[in-house]
């Protein structure tokens, strides 16, 4: 059986990692240790870690030549899924019996044979691709981070530790600024139904499709700041069948990250949140896309509100718990948190709201208190 471990940059091969490797080796598992580092032909980081393992009595085989097949070379290349896994299986082999292989993380090979890099999260992405290719039992991600909690401890000091997350919850929290690896890095393992275990300093969080809903419908609350809220409004929007196509085409052309979208039931307005440094490009793109509608008065001028945050309450249990939205907005109202826009995912795993920047912490605390995530109990 294969098990994959990823040693993130900045984390040394400390006692917990070495103990985990010894345990897996003693159980007869093949261990593939993916190491962040330069990842060049010589693989200096890979050799250095292999020497540390040897000093701890663990013999490892260095596989510095292993690369992930990617799109065109560069620092933000994408894996060529399918081809990448087949090539990794060919290079590494299915593996039989105990042993430790050490290989570079984030190192890629473009179609022309040149070197490429998988960019942010590339080491974990490599580990998850290896796990998918070899049908591994699990992936272990060893990081320098602190304990993953249900909310930012600077805002909610007593927020409980998150020992387990469903894959869908992890995806939502990662998107909304939670202290998790990017979901694109975890996706190959998640798609293959391979559990991922995050090892922070002194704590573990398991991410798995088998994780059940928690005692409370909301598992965690996260916030993304430095956003702007853009509203497109006008009576002509309801008469324009291609309105949404033009809207999303303009956002795509501006390369905007859209973190919340809310549309009025009468289709007279649509509101969305983008990063503050993208507002100028978004505004220019929308004015170009709707120039005729604006000139005829069918669409009013764009409304932009700066200094906005999006707060997301995330939990697999929301779908089966009546009244979650009512509890959430009652708590927000009692806390005096002014909500500017609301959106709920069709999967019912999150409720997102936009609030002014100076109300964001208040909103996070109110939601945590409403759903028992502030260390003071509460009803499920």
Can you walk me through this structure?
With about 375 residues, the protein is of the alpha/beta class. It folds into two domains: about 210 residues, Carbamate kinase, CATH 3.40.1160.10; about 170 residues, VC0802-like. The strands form three sheets. An eight-stranded mixed sheet has the order 3-5-2-1-8-10-11-9, with helices on both faces. Helix 3 packs across helix 4 and helix 10 crosses helix 11. The radius of gyration is 23 Å and the shape is globular. The two termini are about 40 Å apart. The relative contact order is 0.11.
Short descriptors:
380 residues; Carbamate kinase; alpha/beta; 8-stranded mixed beta sheet; 2 domains; VC0802-like; 6-stranded antiparallel beta sheet
What is the number of helices?
11
- The fold-level CATH name of the largest domain is Carbamate kinase
* Backbone structural class: alpha/beta
From N to C, what is the helix and strand string?
Answer: EHEHEEHEEEHEEHHEEEHEEHHEHEEH
Taking pLDDT < 50 over at least 5 consecutive residues as the criterion, the unreliable ranges are none
CATH architecture of the largest domain: 3-Layer(aba) Sandwich
First-last Cα distance: 40 Å
Helix content: 25-40%
| Overall number of domains | 2
Write the layout of secondary structure elements.
Layout (H helix, E strand, L loop, with lengths): L1 E6 L7 H12 L3 E6 L8 H12 L5 E2 L5 E2 L13 H10 L6 E6 L2 E3 L5 E3 L4 H13 L4 E4 L21 E3 H9 L7 H9 L4 E5 L2 E6 L11 E14 L9 H11 L4 E6 L5 E7 L3 H11 L1 H6 L6 E12 L9 H11 L4 E6 L5 E7 L3 H11 L10
Parallel strand pairs: 1-2, 1-8, 2-5, 3-5, 4-6, 8-10, 9-11
Antiparallel strand pairs: 6-7, 10-11, 12-14, 12-15, 13-14, 15-17, 16-17
């Amino acid at each position: 059986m294969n098990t994959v471990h990823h040693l993130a940059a900045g984390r040394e091969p400390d006692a917990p990692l070495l103990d985990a490797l010894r345990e897996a080796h003693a159980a007869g598992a093949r261990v593939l240790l993916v190491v962040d580092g330069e990842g060049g032909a010589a693989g200096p980081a890979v050799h250095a870690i292999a020497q540390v393992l040897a000093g701890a009595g663990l013999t490892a085989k260095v596989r510095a030549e292993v690369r992930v097949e990617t799109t065109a070379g560069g620092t933000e290349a994408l894996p060529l899924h399918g081809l990448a896994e087949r090539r990794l299986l060919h290079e590494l082999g299915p593996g039989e019996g105990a042993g430790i292989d050490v290989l570079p993380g984030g190192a890629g090979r473009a179609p022309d044979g040149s070197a490429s890099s998988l960019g942010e999260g590339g080491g974990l992405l490599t580990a998850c691709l290896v796990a998918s290719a070899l049908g591994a039992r699990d992936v272990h991600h060893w990081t320098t981070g602190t304990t993953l909690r249900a909310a930012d401890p600077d805002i909610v000091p007593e927020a409980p530790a998150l020992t387990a997350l469903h894959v869908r919850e992890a995806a939502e929290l990662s998107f909304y600024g939670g202290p998790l690896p990017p979901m694109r890095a975890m996706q190959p393992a998640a798609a293959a139904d391979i559990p991922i275990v995050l090892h922070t300093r002194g704590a573990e969080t398991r991410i798995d499709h088998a994780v059940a809903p928690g005692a409370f419908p909301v598992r965690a609350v996260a916030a993304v700041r430095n956003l702007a809220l853009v509203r497109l409004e006008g009576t002509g929007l309801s008469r324009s069948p291609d309105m949404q196509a033009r809207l999303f085409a303009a956002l795509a052309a501006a390369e905007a990250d859209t973190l919340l979208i809310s549309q009025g039931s009468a289709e007279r307005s649509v509101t969305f949140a983008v990063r503050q440094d993208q507002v100028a490009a978004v505004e220019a793109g929308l004015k170009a896309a709707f120039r005729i509608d604006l000139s005829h008065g069918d669409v009013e001028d764009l409304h932009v509100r700066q200094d906005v945050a999006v707060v997301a309450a995330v939990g697999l249990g929301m779908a089966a718990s009546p009244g979650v939205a009512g509890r959430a907005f009652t708590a927000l109202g009692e806390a005096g948190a002014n909500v500017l826009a609301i959106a709920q995912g069709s999967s019912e795993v999150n409720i997102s709201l936009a609030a002014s920047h100076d109300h964001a912490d208040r909103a996070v605390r109110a939601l945590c208190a409403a759903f028992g995530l502030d260390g003071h109990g509460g009803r499920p």
